[in-house]
Model the fold of this input.
Amino acid sequence: MSLHIKNGHLIDPTNGIDGQCDLFIDDAGFVAASGQAPEDFTPTHSIDATAKVVCPGLIDLRVRTREPGLEHKATMASEVRAAVNAGITTLCCPPDTHPPIDTPAMAQMIQQRAWRYGLAFVHPLGALTRNLEGRTLTDMAALDEAGCVGFSNALHAINDTLVLRHAMEYAAGFDFTVFLHPEDPYLHGGGCVHEGEISTRLGLPGIPEAAETVAVGRDLALIEQTGVRAHFCQLSTARALSMVAAAQQSGLPVTVDVTAHHLHLSEHDVGIFDSQCHVRPPLRSQKDRDGLRQMIKDGVVTAVCSDHQPHEPDAKLAPFSLSEPGISGLETLLPLTLKLVDDNLLPLNQAIALLTQGPANILGIDAGHLSTGATADICIFDPDTDWEFTEADIHSRGHNTPFLGWRFRGKVTHTLVGGKLVFEEGKKPDLSQGHFY
Amino acid sequence: MTVADIQFDEQGQLKHFLTIEGLKRDHILQILDTAQSFITLAKKEIKKAPLLRGKTVVNLFFESSTRTRTTFEIAAKRLSADVINLNPQHSATSKGETLLDTVNNLEAMHTDLFVVRHPNSGAANLIAKHVPPHVRIINAGDGRHAHPTQAMLDMFTIRAHKGDVKNLQVAIVGDILHSRVARSQIHALTTLGAAQVRVIAPKTLLPTEVERLGVHPYTNMHEGLRDADVVIMLRLQRERMNGAFVPSEQEFFNLYGLTADKLAYAKQDAIVMHPGPMNRGLEIDSSVADGPQSVILPQVTYGIAVRMAIMALIMGGKPVARKRRTSGSTRGSNGTTST
Done:
């Protein structure tokens, strides 16, 4: 199948394209050309993208598919389907599966399960330490060989700074990227909300800002010492982001992402014990939320992710501190990011870059652009559709989201992975098309 | 959703009693007035009223308690309810049953009112949100969040000994950070218009941004107690000593333990309260606890009447018509007599 995507507004930040431009996909699933069709190119199919935006398929830096180990919450099959329905064609999964991704076999198994469905591309992160225990390094070179795009200890803090130093040094020697979740375990304590007005009012154990800034300070010192390329995951406080901004200015190779929900919610959204707002790191103050938005505008933050964590209903039906943290976020990643455009924070092409070019560069993968010859992973959305987010819009197995009832502008109409149409609004998926490998 | 959405029915009647936050001054006064009518009942030979006859009350205590559970039990029995006491931490939950499953199972036995204590903040709210509409919930303490019936009996005590709460200087001393009692007292006192509410503790035991609750924090006991009309001491749990909250019992007692010397900074006629159980020699000196200014034991007595009032009100007993200071003469206006 070769394809002509007509009359769309093409946004490809990597190639500086932002305007009406046709796109041509060859029968092998690669971009043949943009603008003018190549000579002798006769498309077998076409998509009319009039008044729609055509952009590279979205890349989500952090998605827990719950497989293997927590299949009662979600599965690879359910979550990659939900991802492509939301325009996400590439996702990166952290190593805190059960068992963790600390062996090449585990890394390969996850990719094979994803390949079986042929929907989104799934890139695993390898564990930085064995069993995420923070004591022994993993076989990083073998994990890299097996397809891991970077290394992380996920939410398991490495208390022993010597182990962390060695992990960073080792990774630096092979030019691997280390993904850090800065959170001081002692200051975090048993906390479950931001330490501030709401923790005081509700009598919930709080997590102070310093739990993040102390860990970022420590990590930055080790990054400087070891020269490793490092990425900070989902920072939640304005102060920690300022520290990273200063480090970037002094030339340290550090990048940072934030989650879509931290850009729109604050501690006050916890209301009276709304466990759908129980996330880690916690929703911070309104000042922090504004600070995060400013850092996006300033270019310090180069990616927005969903930090997708699907849960079964019971996981949230408990007293707040006993409920499991996390939001099922695939479906709201694009709408919440587009909301930043409506809020006049960013132009549309920069919002798209936060979901395509930005995360691709962080992962160091050849994706998130539509250059000639690139894999044709494409998201097409109608930027003017005004819609209300309801449970019917959720394709993930996890319905745990605080955004039900929100109104969004912009909805995905088509998703292509490797040139194949894997989602079209209003149509049932044609499973026979799924296996394109 | 606000707490009022859960706590009140469509007619604006109190349906569950979960927290003081969101209650209006009139709600609080209504409960206090109703409680006053039950005080007289306790002095009669037959201490029962038939308001809850045929109703089943379950005391569901996921955390141990003597005073609160006993006063709730007595309160329910004086209202003629059948009472069942359960300590699920020893049975169902230890077998892995979820909180809502435990409640649903008990509800399936046609119980009418749950009095719930739970070690985690928000537990009573969660249950109230998920029970069928005819079931009522009273929060008997959830984590560090709220202990509204304790705060109500404290307000009753203050009113009984000081008249109106308005214009009083009230100091709450001790482990504010971990105290659900303090949080509920603060809401009650500010709603009733106390002149000033102060919280006194080392900074390690003061919650962040506590001023947002409308109180004035002090780390110095003498300054905090100056000219206070009411001094409320909180229990310092001994397990806090193991953390880095307080260096030692001795230092805590020296700085914050209520002794006759320190009490002298308060007004001469100040009253001393404590929700119990007391740590004598840690947060309070025996000479003060048993002294003339102490109203600690009357607090317990009032606790029964206040809990009866709350149970009666949320179980559909029509509210007592508000009258001006008619202590003792009010009774349930739904026709029941106090015999």
Notes: Residues 71 and 154 of chain B are 14 Å apart (CA to CA). The two ends of chain B are 42 Å apart (CA to CA). The longest helix of chain B spans residues 296-314. Residues 319-339 of chain B have pLDDT under 50 and may be disordered.
